[in-house]
Hints:
The chain is 23% helix and 30% strand.
Amino acid sequence: MPRRRLFVVLLVLLAAVGAGVHEAGAAAGPGVSSAAATPDRARYDVTLRSDADGGHWSGRQRVSFRNTSDQPLREVYLRLWGNGEDKCGTPGAPAPVIVSSVEGGTPGRPAVDCTALRIALPKPLARGERTSVAFDVSVTVPDRNARFGREGAYRFLGNALPVLAVHDARGWHLDPYVALGESFYALTSDFRVRLDHPSTLKVPATGHTRTLPGGPGRTVTLSVADRVRDFAWAAGPFRTATRTTPGGVRVKSYWTPDTPAAGVRLNGTDAVAAIDRFGREFGRYPYGEIDLVMTPRFGGGMEYPGLVLLGTTEEGSAVVHELAHQWWYGIVGNDEYTSPWLDESFAQYANARFYGWETSDCWSDVYWPDDNTALTASMAYWSQHRGEYHLVYTAGPCALADLERTLGADTMARLLERYVQDHWYGVSTTADFKRAAQSMTDEDLRPFWETHRIR
């Protein structure tokens, strides 16, 4: 990649994390067994209807789930991440995501700045048993250009749907929302979503989508998404195009008329190449299609299963990094609040490999503020040290490139392929990765981890 384009893409990427800071809470520590995580194998059935411009959606949502814990499950929590920026709202401007008319349990008062809603189950749910809760949901898109926000006539609905919180050996994960990076931690689930909207709006969404005629002047977009960690969509009078990769993945592009045409073309070309290459390196992309949503002023990029939001210039965007997240967070899950390096550093390492960046001198761009700063720090730390968060994008891929040189390129490739397969649709931790890497060599890697601040 030309140096100028490398610089621009990096700036675009870092711009995605330049928003505000919120309170930090205690997070689960590394090494928690994913086998203890519950509720598991959830299914979301969602029916929503939009207003005239896609700025408000309302309808009904049902989520069924099973308890995989050895202990009875007496409650569940919904994460209303869409309230993260506005918290509980004000009397004149209520919270963007409101849940009401709950069936299948008794709701409590919203907590954690209205991003967590406890629902007490009518009776304890034993191990292996399933149950469901249902509720009305109202979603109002905030007036800001963000992953849950708007740009002109275009609406972005990332983290807008309520999703189940995770309970594991460390208890319920009810960490606060952060706009600097992500707080999200979810197990894979199945989604069946029906979106009723004006026919003037195109609606890219997670999963396999198809459209049906609705009422007069309206269209219904149906989406089926299996084994994904979240569901996102967008709405607006997008221009569209579809390409299919040699490996059979549909790449669907959606862009605003003022998005630079050269950037749209470049994103499409890079996406077609990247989705197949990562499929060869990490395991075949399992979702069949990927949607690229492109606008000129969106801040950086943001990843969701099967859909990425991209701020696009004439020189493209961070599309390859965001597509790498389909594996590093999407397929190989992690607690993004506790261990953000496990998705961001791995995605940026994959991005660097795709473009053939020279990494032998990448440490020249890395500055550690003090000896206590760790690459593996949580969002509780990074939220209080905003100027250091770039380290997960700079020091992280440098560390992985050094590990590649330590193990050898072929061994590193086998490590990553095996690691993805071992954690396919699961949850990984830093401790898991360190064990996996150590299993590939007779050399003691403990000095490597300490030198690279992987703790």
